[in-house]
Amino acid sequence: MATCAQPRPLLAAPRLPALRHLGPHWYATVMGTAVVANAGAALPLSVPGLRAACALAWGLSAVLLGTLLAARAGHWAYHRDQAEAHLLDPAVAPFYGCLSMALLAVGGATVTVGGDVVGAGAALSAGATLWCVGTAVGLAAAVAVPYLMVVRHRVEPGSASPVWLLPVVAPMVSAALGPQLVPHLPEGQWREAMLLACYAMFGLSLLATLLMLPLVLARLLHHGPLPLALTPTLFLVLGPLGQSTTAVDSLADVAPDAIGAPYARALGAFAVLYGVPVMGFALLWLALAAAMVVRAARGGMPFTMTWWAFTFPVGTCVTGAAGLARHTGLDALGWLAAGLYAALVVAWAVAGFRTLRGLVSGALLAAPGAPRPTTARTT
Protein backbone atom coordinates (compact mmCIF):
# COMPACT_ATOMS: atom_id res chain seq x y z
CA MET A 1 0.00 0.00 0.00
CA ALA A 2 1.43 3.27 -1.09
CA THR A 3 0.98 6.48 0.84
CA CYS A 4 1.32 9.98 -0.48
CA ALA A 5 3.19 12.46 1.63
CA GLN A 6 1.50 15.79 2.09
CA PRO A 7 3.32 18.44 0.07
CA ARG A 8 5.16 21.02 2.14
CA PRO A 9 4.39 24.60 1.31
CA LEU A 10 7.12 26.37 -0.59
CA LEU A 11 8.56 29.69 0.54
CA ALA A 12 6.60 29.74 3.78
CA ALA A 13 7.52 33.15 5.17
CA PRO A 14 8.19 33.25 8.91
CA ARG A 15 6.03 35.61 10.88
CA LEU A 16 8.76 36.62 13.35
CA PRO A 17 6.26 37.21 16.16
CA ALA A 18 8.89 38.81 18.39
CA LEU A 19 9.00 41.78 16.00
CA ARG A 20 5.27 42.50 15.91
CA HIS A 21 5.32 45.07 18.69
CA LEU A 22 8.78 46.51 17.93
CA GLY A 23 7.79 50.14 17.41
CA PRO A 24 9.84 53.14 16.26
CA HIS A 25 10.32 54.20 19.89
CA TRP A 26 13.12 51.61 20.12
CA TYR A 27 15.38 54.00 18.23
CA ALA A 28 15.56 55.95 21.49
CA THR A 29 18.05 53.35 22.72
CA VAL A 30 20.37 54.33 19.87
CA MET A 31 19.90 58.03 20.52
CA GLY A 32 20.54 57.66 24.25
CA THR A 33 23.69 55.59 23.70
CA ALA A 34 25.17 57.80 20.96
CA VAL A 35 24.63 60.97 22.98
CA VAL A 36 26.81 59.52 25.75
CA ALA A 37 29.65 59.60 23.22
CA ASN A 38 28.79 63.01 21.76
CA ALA A 39 28.28 64.69 25.12
CA GLY A 40 31.40 63.15 26.66
CA ALA A 41 33.54 64.38 23.77
CA ALA A 42 32.10 67.89 24.16
CA LEU A 43 32.98 68.27 27.84
CA PRO A 44 35.45 71.11 28.48
CA LEU A 45 37.21 68.93 31.06
CA SER A 46 40.04 66.43 30.70
CA VAL A 47 39.14 63.10 32.29
CA PRO A 48 41.48 60.10 31.89
CA GLY A 49 39.85 57.32 29.91
CA LEU A 50 36.85 59.41 28.88
CA ARG A 51 37.76 59.46 25.19
CA ALA A 52 38.06 55.66 25.09
CA ALA A 53 34.75 55.29 26.92
CA CYS A 54 33.10 57.60 24.39
CA ALA A 55 34.48 55.52 21.53
CA LEU A 56 33.05 52.41 23.19
CA ALA A 57 29.65 54.09 23.51
CA TRP A 58 29.82 55.09 19.84
CA GLY A 59 30.59 51.50 18.80
CA LEU A 60 27.68 50.19 20.85
CA SER A 61 25.32 52.78 19.36
CA ALA A 62 26.41 51.82 15.83
CA VAL A 63 25.72 48.14 16.55
CA LEU A 64 22.33 49.02 18.03
CA LEU A 65 21.48 51.13 15.00
CA GLY A 66 22.33 48.36 12.55
CA THR A 67 20.38 45.80 14.59
CA LEU A 68 17.31 47.99 14.86
CA LEU A 69 17.33 48.95 11.19
CA ALA A 70 17.28 45.26 10.31
CA ALA A 71 14.63 44.45 12.91
CA ARG A 72 12.40 47.31 11.81
CA ALA A 73 12.77 46.21 8.19
CA GLY A 74 11.55 42.79 9.32
CA HIS A 75 8.67 44.45 11.15
CA TRP A 76 7.53 46.16 7.95
CA ALA A 77 8.06 43.00 5.88
CA TYR A 78 6.21 40.54 8.13
CA HIS A 79 3.87 42.76 10.17
CA ARG A 80 2.88 45.47 7.72
CA ASP A 81 -0.60 45.71 9.26
CA GLN A 82 0.90 46.59 12.63
CA ALA A 83 3.39 48.99 11.06
CA GLU A 84 0.59 50.84 9.28
CA ALA A 85 -1.43 50.87 12.49
CA HIS A 86 1.52 52.57 14.21
CA LEU A 87 1.46 55.35 11.63
CA LEU A 88 -2.25 55.90 12.25
CA ASP A 89 -1.85 55.91 16.04
CA PRO A 90 -1.31 59.47 17.36
CA ALA A 91 0.53 58.03 20.37
CA VAL A 92 3.06 56.11 18.23
CA ALA A 93 3.48 58.04 14.96
CA PRO A 94 5.55 60.89 16.50
CA PHE A 95 8.23 58.36 17.40
CA TYR A 96 9.13 58.13 13.72
CA GLY A 97 11.20 61.24 14.44
CA CYS A 98 13.47 58.98 16.51
CA LEU A 99 14.70 57.21 13.36
CA SER A 100 16.14 60.46 12.04
CA MET A 101 17.72 61.40 15.36
CA ALA A 102 19.23 57.93 15.77
CA LEU A 103 20.91 58.20 12.36
CA LEU A 104 22.12 61.72 13.09
CA ALA A 105 23.36 60.95 16.60
CA VAL A 106 25.40 57.96 15.45
CA GLY A 107 26.71 59.99 12.50
CA GLY A 108 27.76 62.82 14.80
CA ALA A 109 29.53 60.44 17.17
CA THR A 110 31.25 58.78 14.21
CA VAL A 111 32.84 62.08 13.20
CA THR A 112 33.62 63.07 16.80
CA VAL A 113 35.14 59.90 18.22
CA GLY A 114 34.71 57.19 15.58
CA GLY A 115 37.82 58.37 13.77
CA ASP A 116 39.88 57.02 16.67
CA VAL A 117 38.74 53.54 15.65
CA VAL A 118 38.10 53.54 11.90
CA GLY A 119 40.26 56.46 10.77
CA ALA A 120 39.38 60.09 10.09
CA GLY A 121 38.54 59.62 6.40
CA ALA A 122 36.18 56.69 6.89
CA ALA A 123 34.58 58.38 9.89
CA LEU A 124 33.92 61.56 7.90
CA SER A 125 32.42 59.64 4.97
CA ALA A 126 30.17 57.59 7.24
CA GLY A 127 29.17 60.63 9.29
CA ALA A 128 28.33 62.68 6.21
CA THR A 129 26.22 59.85 4.79
CA LEU A 130 24.31 59.39 8.03
CA TRP A 131 23.79 63.15 8.30
CA CYS A 132 22.33 63.35 4.79
CA VAL A 133 20.04 60.35 5.25
CA GLY A 134 19.03 61.39 8.77
CA THR A 135 18.28 64.94 7.64
CA ALA A 136 16.11 63.74 4.76
CA VAL A 137 14.21 61.39 7.08
CA GLY A 138 13.84 64.13 9.71
CA LEU A 139 12.46 66.70 7.28
CA ALA A 140 10.03 64.11 5.92
CA ALA A 141 8.87 63.23 9.45
CA ALA A 142 8.51 66.91 10.37
CA VAL A 143 5.97 67.25 7.57
CA ALA A 144 4.36 63.80 7.43
CA VAL A 145 3.61 63.28 11.13
CA PRO A 146 1.85 66.65 11.68
CA TYR A 147 -0.01 66.04 8.42
CA LEU A 148 -1.24 62.68 9.70
CA MET A 149 -2.21 64.28 13.01
CA VAL A 150 -4.39 66.78 11.17
CA VAL A 151 -6.03 64.62 8.51
CA ARG A 152 -5.96 61.04 9.82
CA HIS A 153 -5.49 60.94 13.59
CA ARG A 154 -8.26 61.56 16.09
CA VAL A 155 -6.62 63.77 18.67
CA GLU A 156 -8.78 64.20 21.76
CA PRO A 157 -8.89 67.57 23.54
CA GLY A 158 -6.34 67.73 26.32
CA SER A 159 -4.27 64.86 24.92
CA ALA A 160 -1.20 66.94 24.02
CA SER A 161 2.01 65.13 24.94
CA PRO A 162 5.73 65.99 24.93
CA VAL A 163 6.04 63.10 22.46
CA TRP A 164 4.57 65.46 19.84
CA LEU A 165 7.92 67.27 19.84
CA LEU A 166 9.86 64.28 18.48
CA PRO A 167 9.24 64.76 14.74
CA VAL A 168 9.72 68.53 14.78
CA VAL A 169 12.90 68.47 16.85
CA ALA A 170 14.71 66.16 14.42
CA PRO A 171 15.76 69.04 12.07
CA MET A 172 17.29 70.78 15.09
CA VAL A 173 19.60 67.79 15.53
CA SER A 174 20.64 68.22 11.89
CA ALA A 175 21.31 71.90 12.57
CA ALA A 176 23.46 71.03 15.58
CA LEU A 177 25.54 68.36 13.83
CA GLY A 178 25.76 69.92 10.37
CA PRO A 179 28.60 72.27 11.43
CA GLN A 180 30.88 69.21 11.70
CA LEU A 181 30.78 69.00 7.92
CA VAL A 182 31.17 72.69 7.07
CA PRO A 183 35.00 72.82 7.27
CA HIS A 184 35.22 69.87 4.89
CA LEU A 185 33.19 71.55 2.13
CA PRO A 186 34.72 73.74 -0.59
CA GLU A 187 35.18 77.36 0.43
CA GLY A 188 32.67 79.94 -0.67
CA GLN A 189 29.17 79.02 -1.80
CA TRP A 190 29.19 75.46 -0.47
CA ARG A 191 30.13 76.39 3.08
CA GLU A 192 27.79 79.36 3.23
CA ALA A 193 24.90 77.33 1.82
CA MET A 194 25.47 74.61 4.41
CA LEU A 195 25.68 77.13 7.23
CA LEU A 196 22.47 78.90 6.24
CA ALA A 197 20.68 75.59 5.61
CA CYS A 198 21.48 74.60 9.18
CA TYR A 199 20.13 77.94 10.44
CA ALA A 200 16.97 77.36 8.38
CA MET A 201 16.47 73.97 10.05
CA PHE A 202 17.18 75.62 13.40
CA GLY A 203 14.37 78.11 12.74
CA LEU A 204 12.02 75.45 11.38
CA SER A 205 12.38 73.33 14.49
CA LEU A 206 12.40 76.23 16.95
CA LEU A 207 9.18 77.79 15.67
CA ALA A 208 7.44 74.41 15.53
CA THR A 209 8.53 73.77 19.12
CA LEU A 210 7.19 77.14 20.22
CA LEU A 211 3.82 76.11 18.77
CA MET A 212 3.83 72.76 20.58
CA LEU A 213 5.06 73.75 24.04
CA PRO A 214 2.01 75.85 25.01
CA LEU A 215 -0.21 72.86 24.16
CA VAL A 216 1.84 70.61 26.44
CA LEU A 217 1.80 73.09 29.32
CA ALA A 218 -1.93 73.74 28.90
CA ARG A 219 -2.58 70.00 29.03
CA LEU A 220 -0.66 69.75 32.33
CA LEU A 221 -2.39 72.75 33.88
CA HIS A 222 -5.93 71.81 32.86
CA HIS A 223 -5.79 68.02 33.10
CA GLY A 224 -3.18 67.37 35.76
CA PRO A 225 -0.06 65.17 35.69
CA LEU A 226 0.63 62.72 32.91
CA PRO A 227 -0.09 59.02 33.48
CA LEU A 228 2.68 57.42 35.54
CA ALA A 229 4.19 55.50 32.64
CA LEU A 230 4.34 58.65 30.49
CA THR A 231 5.81 60.96 33.13
CA PRO A 232 9.43 60.49 31.89
CA THR A 233 8.39 62.02 28.56
CA LEU A 234 8.39 65.41 30.29
CA PHE A 235 12.17 65.28 29.83
CA LEU A 236 11.63 65.39 26.05
CA VAL A 237 11.02 69.14 26.36
CA LEU A 238 14.70 69.50 27.20
CA GLY A 239 15.58 68.16 23.74
CA PRO A 240 14.78 71.23 21.62
CA LEU A 241 16.09 73.53 24.37
CA GLY A 242 19.49 71.89 24.74
CA GLN A 243 19.80 71.01 21.06
CA SER A 244 19.03 74.54 19.90
CA THR A 245 21.68 75.92 22.27
CA THR A 246 24.13 73.37 20.92
CA ALA A 247 23.21 74.34 17.37
CA VAL A 248 23.85 78.09 17.75
CA ASP A 249 27.15 77.41 19.53
CA SER A 250 28.36 74.97 16.89
CA LEU A 251 27.24 77.17 14.01
CA ALA A 252 28.99 80.18 15.52
CA ASP A 253 32.21 78.15 15.69
CA VAL A 254 32.31 77.56 11.93
CA ALA A 255 30.72 80.84 10.81
CA PRO A 256 34.02 82.79 10.40
CA ASP A 257 35.15 80.41 7.63
CA ALA A 258 31.74 80.21 5.96
CA ILE A 259 30.25 83.69 5.86
CA GLY A 260 31.31 87.35 5.87
CA ALA A 261 32.90 88.91 8.96
CA PRO A 262 29.95 91.13 10.03
CA TYR A 263 27.57 88.17 10.01
CA ALA A 264 30.10 85.85 11.66
CA ARG A 265 30.56 88.26 14.58
CA ALA A 266 26.79 88.68 14.91
CA LEU A 267 26.26 84.92 14.94
CA GLY A 268 28.88 84.57 17.67
CA ALA A 269 27.05 87.11 19.80
CA PHE A 270 23.71 85.45 19.01
CA ALA A 271 25.03 82.13 20.33
CA VAL A 272 25.46 83.62 23.80
CA LEU A 273 22.43 85.93 23.76
CA TYR A 274 20.18 83.03 22.74
CA GLY A 275 21.87 80.18 24.55
CA VAL A 276 22.09 81.58 28.08
CA PRO A 277 18.35 82.39 28.50
CA VAL A 278 17.30 79.12 26.87
CA MET A 279 19.65 77.14 29.09
CA GLY A 280 18.14 78.93 32.07
CA PHE A 281 14.67 77.81 31.00
CA ALA A 282 15.99 74.30 30.39
CA LEU A 283 17.20 74.12 34.00
CA LEU A 284 13.80 75.35 35.20
CA TRP A 285 12.04 72.65 33.17
CA LEU A 286 14.56 70.05 34.35
CA ALA A 287 13.69 70.84 37.97
CA LEU A 288 9.94 70.69 37.24
CA ALA A 289 10.22 67.43 35.28
CA ALA A 290 12.42 65.86 37.95
CA ALA A 291 9.88 66.78 40.64
CA MET A 292 7.10 65.20 38.59
CA VAL A 293 9.18 62.04 38.11
CA VAL A 294 9.85 61.79 41.85
CA ARG A 295 6.11 62.12 42.46
CA ALA A 296 5.38 59.44 39.86
CA ALA A 297 8.05 57.13 41.30
CA ARG A 298 6.45 57.39 44.72
CA GLY A 299 3.17 56.47 43.07
CA GLY A 300 4.64 53.30 41.53
CA MET A 301 5.87 54.46 38.11
CA PRO A 302 6.65 51.29 36.12
CA PHE A 303 9.60 50.80 33.82
CA THR A 304 8.75 51.37 30.16
CA MET A 305 10.74 52.48 27.15
CA THR A 306 9.80 56.06 28.06
CA TRP A 307 12.65 55.93 30.57
CA TRP A 308 15.00 56.54 27.63
CA ALA A 309 13.67 60.11 27.70
CA PHE A 310 16.08 60.60 30.62
CA THR A 311 19.06 60.22 28.26
CA PHE A 312 19.13 62.03 24.90
CA PRO A 313 17.41 65.27 26.05
CA VAL A 314 19.77 65.55 29.02
CA GLY A 315 22.68 64.89 26.66
CA THR A 316 21.67 67.86 24.53
CA CYS A 317 21.80 70.05 27.62
CA VAL A 318 25.33 68.77 28.26
CA THR A 319 26.47 69.79 24.78
CA GLY A 320 24.58 73.08 25.07
CA ALA A 321 26.21 73.98 28.39
CA ALA A 322 29.62 72.89 27.08
CA GLY A 323 29.18 75.12 24.02
CA LEU A 324 28.29 78.09 26.19
CA ALA A 325 31.32 77.41 28.38
CA ARG A 326 33.46 77.48 25.24
CA HIS A 327 32.02 80.80 24.06
CA THR A 328 31.91 82.59 27.40
CA GLY A 329 34.92 81.10 29.16
CA LEU A 330 32.87 80.57 32.32
CA ASP A 331 34.06 77.63 34.41
CA ALA A 332 30.63 77.43 36.04
CA LEU A 333 29.09 76.38 32.73
CA GLY A 334 31.76 73.74 32.30
CA TRP A 335 30.95 72.29 35.71
CA LEU A 336 27.25 72.43 34.86
CA ALA A 337 27.98 70.35 31.74
CA ALA A 338 29.99 67.87 33.84
CA GLY A 339 27.20 67.52 36.41
CA LEU A 340 24.59 66.96 33.73
CA TYR A 341 26.87 64.41 32.05
CA ALA A 342 27.16 62.45 35.29
CA ALA A 343 23.35 62.37 35.51
CA LEU A 344 23.21 61.27 31.86
CA VAL A 345 25.55 58.33 32.43
CA VAL A 346 23.56 57.15 35.44
CA ALA A 347 20.28 57.46 33.52
CA TRP A 348 21.75 55.55 30.55
CA ALA A 349 23.03 52.76 32.78
CA VAL A 350 19.68 52.36 34.55
CA ALA A 351 17.62 52.50 31.33
CA GLY A 352 20.01 50.14 29.57
CA PHE A 353 19.97 47.57 32.36
CA ARG A 354 16.19 47.64 32.69
CA THR A 355 15.79 47.37 28.92
CA LEU A 356 18.14 44.39 28.72
CA ARG A 357 16.26 42.69 31.53
CA GLY A 358 12.94 43.39 29.81
CA LEU A 359 14.25 41.91 26.56
CA VAL A 360 15.44 38.75 28.28
CA SER A 361 12.10 38.29 30.01
CA GLY A 362 10.18 39.15 26.84
CA ALA A 363 8.11 41.78 28.63
CA LEU A 364 9.18 44.67 26.38
CA LEU A 365 8.21 42.89 23.16
CA ALA A 366 4.88 41.62 24.44
CA ALA A 367 1.57 43.05 23.27
CA PRO A 368 0.75 46.28 25.10
CA GLY A 369 -1.80 45.97 27.89
CA ALA A 370 -5.34 47.06 27.21
CA PRO A 371 -6.03 49.27 30.26
CA ARG A 372 -4.56 52.76 30.28
CA PRO A 373 -3.56 54.73 33.37
CA THR A 374 -5.94 57.43 34.48
CA THR A 375 -5.10 61.09 34.02
CA ALA A 376 -7.08 62.31 37.03
CA ARG A 377 -5.36 64.57 39.53
CA THR A 378 -4.08 62.97 42.70
CA THR A 379 -2.57 64.55 45.73
Q: Can you put this structure into words, describing what you see?
A:
With 379 residues, the protein is mostly helical. It is 68% helix and 0% strand. Helix 10 runs antiparallel to helix 11.
What's the structural blueprint in terms of helices and strands?
Elements: H1 27-42, H2 50-78, H3 80-87, H4 97-118, H5 120-151, H6 165-177, H7 189-223, H8 238-254, H9 261-298, H10 312-328, H11 331-361
Roughly how many Å is the radius of gyration? Answer: 22 Å
The oligomeric status of these chains comes to: single chain
Shape: globular
Summarize the biggest pleated sheet. Answer: none
Stretches with pLDDT under 50, minimum 5 residues: 1-13, 370-379
> Kindly state the mean pLDDT as a whole number?
90
Short description:
Helices cover 68% and strands 0% of the residues.
State the main characteristics.
mainly alpha, 379 residues, 0% strand, disordered C terminus, disordered N terminus, globular
